[in-house]
């Protein structure tokens, strides 16, 4: 069970880290400061400067071959293992736009995996190729406002067959990346047969975002922020017509696609969260050493040693757990890895939230302001406790796997 | 030790609660939706509709005599005790603009107390009267970007004597309410003698916000939000000239004023936070009963009974502790109440943060969005763990008071 | 809602506190050191010295009128309110044998309440009178080894009618006080009709411990200790014959008696636990001030200020909550007080366990040894998380009460 | 960083696990039930049956070559790595007497390491050989009643030179294993030069336990239990004469020996604690599935799924952290591994305590009784939060290591 950095990945990590520190981080704040400055006033349009920043960085990353690392276990790209990629994801978590610079950002990676694994050739040609090139973005269209998505079998968005087409009707929300004007693909889960068995009711479609009948109602706010221009959009579909050919894998097999999609993505999210926790701990130490109160360094005051030590210990444990989940995925497959993915999906966001919270507290009021990344990191990791399944659902999975060791029946 | 609602205050609570539910809550969302819609595009200017909403509600509250409850132990107004007022503050915490409607909002109440207690007659005429009328707003100008304000003796903003004036130079930030165009008073703490004894270095001034040399640099963001038009402003003072007559209480007595100001305000903050926790628990129950997953009410799933029970227990304990701190203030004075205020200052925001966090989690992704108050409540109570002294400083006070019971020396 | 010490109870508290400190505490260790020294080697027989210690202290307490305080709301004794008694119970919690010295110890107080409230005159003459005098002890015989007592309806110990008698068969365990040779009464709950409605299956009996067919199998160990000579006994009943006249209140009304019995007792347990937490905090401060490491007082090291502050805050909150539960019992009756009793039943033992745990940690290895009371206090409060219903059951009650505020149906 | 079970160690684990389950566990309870049954009444003498049990098991283990696994990185025995041994230690943690059966129990392993690494040949001949054979036991004599041992430089037990001898005077306590009549060696740390530099004051001696002037005063109790016949003894040394030749490594080098001794031992303790947590989780699941209340399996009630899931997640993280510490020791040496050992020393006992506590709670009152191992496991892991340095000291080490990454100076 080798959880360490391999010799192969070490130089990649070094290059990625250096590019993030030297080239991406300095432009990250500028990128975000541009939000809302498009002449039209539309926050969901990139300014020229934003496109220039992103375009320039992406071109350089690609030229250096620092691109599409997430294509694990593949003969394209690096063919990294999930364990190897995990170390890279951690680095990319430290600066907001970094993952996109290396074409490794959610939800595109998961969507590319769907196409790679389950897509027909024409789907690959049309959408996978430009996604791998970083030319377009995409969205994964699953969550609905009217049902608890934690029980995905409840999803009720309707796809009704009409000849060779399906007619889509309903609302979806929290569609991340659908605000981006470059978004060129929706992968959408719809209910094609509400009377079928629980896991055969749904079907996965690929479609263009500009079909008639698709209306972006509003951006959902994340603790008051619209995350423009990426955005988490609330979308209404009214009689949107999609050909049967746009079904991925087969009618009624939506769950199968969804499950295959989520495993690696959850690990990536977790490793990026761990990267953010590392950054927060580093900021906490630096602040604690630099600032004084009551005649002492802040780090020497009160419980701060304990706070720093706890942060370090919890980061290490979460990283090891995440690497083990990645190793399970590499060696035993996504199904066997499932309880491990559930474990880290609970642990990493909670841990990162706690560490960032302590770092904010040690920074004083500045810590929640625009002057540091901490506030944004904090609200971001908080969303991970819902995204891809709330904590409660993942804990339930872990408990069931545990109890099943002791009884010979369905738990 | 009567911590209950008195007969006198019960009808007031009932009236306040009814007005909040029936009249204020329905307009609260509209008020906030107006932010940024001023024709000038200036988020720190009220729209006509905002002024209409506020003005109408305030007039009605005042007509009904639901006004200035915070004037505790006074022969003006109701002469409520702090315990009695605490129950009212809890209600006002449940809706964002409610406290201002009843002229009970921070930082104005604290500032009015300073004027009432320490101000000279001309100061009262000029600023206290219109504040009591709700005609102007005010700001308390203390925190500085370059020092840890937890150790207030470090505050370095300079006030240099020049004849009958003082010349102010330096920066202050997190000046809440200074964004409001109706803000007509700054109460400002400055260092007049850096070489004096630790608690005699600072002096409190009253001044107009539109003096020459005062420049509002930017709004500080609270988890990405500018809280316009109230705002928490970063302000630069360049050679601002203030007459000696504008000193409150006396040169070098800034700490005394600051201490007198903070006691009641902290309790008010805490009771409002408890009100928010009550609201969150109520929302959590309603959501848990209304929504289903896996064929059950969400409230019946997993650990939700325990979560609800823990929330109820922690709210009750925090409220009782807060009421005891209020009772100490009423019966033993602000100095003797100090360790009790420190206790509740630590407990209430932590508790409220936890309860609101659980309520968000039970709401799923919607819980962090603009569709519910939870996200804003959560970020707001998080700020209370810094405001008026970070948790660590208050815990330190509690511990010192405890240890002093066992030794006959300074701890 | 007056939760304070009344003028009436203050001198009693002072007398009780003084007698505990001056007279009881010094003999407590000696009493326990005598355990196992009876010439027979039987740990469940008092030595002469033990009887002398207890007898002497009890006589003195009684002579001073410091006796049977627990008889709240009664015209016998002091007629204290539950709130008033709670303050006395806190003091008595600080030294192991103190409660018995004042004839206020469990399970006798609860048993006396059963007799007082539901007993017939002959039962009062035979058992209540000597219990009120402190001449005999008693046991409450409810818990069974084979069922989860948290769901008391499951209790299966059989009482089968045979003419004018009932024949008892089955096992009971954790029968506290049944080891004491002075134990002269069992109050026993048995299933008289397993087919009746859930809460009408059981009947409460009073009986002599020396009836034929009663066999004490063994003392249950509490973390390895047998708590001799009090003991928590495992008892087998084989064809034990009890007359119908020994039924309390009526056949099938066992639950009613049990519920009436448990309310006050739970509050007493909680207040004694709070007394132990106070003692632990006091020991923690004294140790922290007296001992040095790394050139500093231990109290000045690491997170100890925070630990002390947290302990103080949690004790205060638990005490206020407990006093409110007592006040509810005094003013609204045991039924209305039920959710409040559940709250404090969860909170007080958890809180005390945490404070004592921290005090142990600060004492180093000595803290878990026989040289300090901490270890025994810790294991004792741990048992309170099971006794009279486990935490989970009480949390469930609190949650149901909360949810019922929002729906018009049985939860 | 291979943290997995190697092919080499897998069959050993299997053999050890099987022998523990099939042969040792069934005799463990009988061994402990014999305590105190020696005809002399002396709890610190083994009964014949105890010697028979231990002797028989040890002979069989040795015959099978399941012996002295702890000799890691050595060409004697198996030459296992610390990572490999860690997996074995986890298994041995599950049954009390198991570690001794395989000659892998504390404090003997640490003492053997001292002799192996720093001992002179005559010391090895005299004490190491019979220890490796399992013929004698030993004790490590460090902790003192009058100083906080967390700051070991304070240790004041006196060794005064007198010609070719040293004269020892003072008291030591918590000397584990010194109660065992087979104990044939003390390794003792004494202050030979109180005026020397902080880490050069102390010297390590080897000596016979039956020297004149050594008096075992009493067994220290661990939550009321004396752990006989092993025991944690309080010992007084009065003018005990030890030749200079009995010094290990050199005068003033006691700290060096102590540091070298403690690293591996801490990891072993932690892995055994993890074994106990696994056992507790397993018991929790079995109990939850077997017992019913309110018409459901207990595992299906309330928060039990979450409790089980949390236990599983925390065990996995602690195990991975422990394995990483072992791997650091194997690959980078004990000094570089130090912060990792501190981390796991904090985490493992806390985690195990929490898991065992939850398992007890789910077992109801039985869980704290003699009918299950849980109570003894719980009190045992609680002691690990003091043993080999309290949590606070280890957290301090972790924090200092963290801060040192950011400054170029001594922290």
TrEMBL record, chains A, B, C, D:
Provide the Acyl-CoA dehydrogenase/oxidase N-terminal domain boundaries.
9-135
Residue intervals of the Acyl-CoA oxidase/dehydrogenase middle domain: 139-235
Cofactors that this protein relies on = FAD
> Pfam families, alphabetically?
Acyl-CoA_dh_1, Acyl-CoA_dh_M, Acyl-CoA_dh_N
Residues forming the Acyl-CoA dehydrogenase/oxidase C-terminal domain are: 252-401
Q: Which InterPro entries match?
A: Acyl-CoA_dehydrogenase, Acyl-CoA_Oxase/DH_mid-dom, Acyl-CoA_Oxase/DH_mid-dom_sf, AcylCo_DH-like_C, AcylCo_DH/oxidase_C, AcylCoA_DH/ox_N, AcylCoA_DH/ox_N_sf, AcylCoA_DH/oxidase_NM_dom_sf
Keywords in alphabetical order, please.
FAD, Flavoprotein, Oxidoreductase
Recorded family membership: Belongs to the acyl-CoA dehydrogenase family.
Q: How does it assemble?
A: Homodimer.
Put simply, this protein is called Acyl-CoA dehydrogenase family protein
């Amino acid at each position: 069970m080798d959880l360490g950095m391999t010799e192969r990945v070490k130089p990649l990590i070094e290059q990625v880290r250096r590019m993030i520190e030297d080239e991406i981080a300095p432009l990250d704040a500028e990128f975000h400061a541009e939000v809302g400055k498009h002449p039209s006033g539309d926050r969901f349009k990139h300014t020229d400067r934003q496109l220039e920043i992103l375009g320039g960085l992406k071109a350089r990353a690609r030229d250096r071959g620092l691109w599409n690392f997430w294509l694990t276990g593949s003969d394209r790209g690096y063919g990294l293992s999930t364990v190897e990629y995990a170390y890279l994801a951690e680095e990319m978590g430290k600066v907001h736009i970094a993952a996109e610079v290396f074409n490794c950002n959610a939800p595109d990676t998961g969507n590319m995996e769907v196409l790679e694994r389950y897509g027909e050739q024409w789907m690959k040609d049309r959408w996978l190729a430009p996604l791998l090139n970083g030319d377009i973005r995409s969205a994964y269209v699953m969550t609905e406002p009217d049902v608890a998505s934690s029980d995905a079998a409840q999803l009720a968005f309707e796809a009704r067959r009409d000849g060779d087409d399906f007619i889509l009707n309903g609302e979806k929300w929290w569609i991340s990346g659908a605000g981006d004007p470059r978004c060129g693909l929706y992968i959408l889960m719809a209910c094609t047969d509400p009377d079928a068995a629980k896991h055969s009711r749904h079907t996965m479609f690929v479609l263009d975002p500009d079909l008639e009948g698709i209306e972006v109602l509003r951006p959902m706010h994340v603790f008051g922020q619209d995350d423009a221009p990426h955005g988490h959009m609330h979308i209404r579909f009214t009689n949107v017509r999609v050909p049967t050919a746009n079904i991925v894998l087969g009618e009624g097999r939506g769950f199968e696609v969804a499950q295959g999609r989520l495993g690696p993505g959850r690990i990536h999210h977790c490793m990026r969260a761990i990267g953010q926790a590392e950054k927060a701990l580093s900021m906490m130490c630096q602040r604690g050493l630099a600032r004084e109160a009551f005649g002492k360094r802040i780090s020497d005051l009160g419980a701060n040693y304990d706070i720093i030590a706890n942060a370090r210990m919890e980061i290490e444990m979460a990283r090891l757990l995440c690497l083990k989940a990645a190793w399970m995925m590499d060696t035993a497959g996504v199904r066997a890895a499932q309880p491990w993915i559930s474990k880290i999906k609970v642990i990493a966001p909670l841990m990162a939230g706690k560490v960032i919270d302590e770092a904010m507290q040690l920074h004083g009021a500045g810590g929640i302001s625009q002057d540091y990344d901490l506030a944004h990191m904090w609200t971001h990791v908080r969303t991970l406790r819902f995204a891809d399944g709330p904590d409660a659902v993942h804990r339930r999975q872990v408990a069931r796997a545990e109890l099943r060791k002791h009884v010979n029946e369905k738990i």
